[in-house]
Amino acid sequence: MDYTERIIETNDWATYLLVGCFLLLAVAKYFYPKRFDEFVLMPLSNKYLSVYGKDDAIYHPFSMILFVVQVVCVSIFIYLLFEAFNPTEAQENPWLFVQIATGYATFVLIKLSIEKIVANIFSMDAIIDQYLHQKLSHRNFLALLIFLGNLFFLYFYPGTSFSLLIFALTILLFNTIALISSYKKNGNLVVSNFFHFIVYLCALEISPYIILYKVFFTEVSI
Length: 222
Known about the structure:
Layout: H1 12-31, H2 33-40, H3 47-52, H4 61-85, H5 87-92, H6 96-121, H7 125-155, H8 161-185, H9 187-192, H10 194-221
């Protein structure tokens, strides 16, 4: 009789994290019911962005709770991409998810800090804070869509490289639309500071994602 090793893959860790995200959303809903209701209606109404986009809203506990949800959901989805495009790395590296989550959170926080520093240098704190709140809110909302996508790919339809890529491109498209919407809302400011806007767009919005793209696909191809 020949014995063969039986490898059982489990997604229990992802289940615990998604349940944790659900509990965080419940906490946000319980302590900030009005803010939460207006947040989920954000694609249909501009009220959340206009009412809550002041007084350092990006540091409000509600925004911070949703940011944690964003980090977890995005990191799980990136992990699923690794499983699809580089399964060897996903199987052999038990700390891959932790590395992804740490890297993603660090990237976002460093980028945010640089944007705040630039705003302070050019004495545009109030304007940039409002813009950052809009951008963070849009991405927190997209995290809810990614949350649903993670549930679908983990428990209903095992994600293939094609389906995961299509979903990722859809999320990126929505994110681009949200950015364009933010620029339109600040159209007068953009026109009056067009040169600074182009520099900001290239240095802080486009180049970091090009670097991330190259790093990710370099890791995937190894």
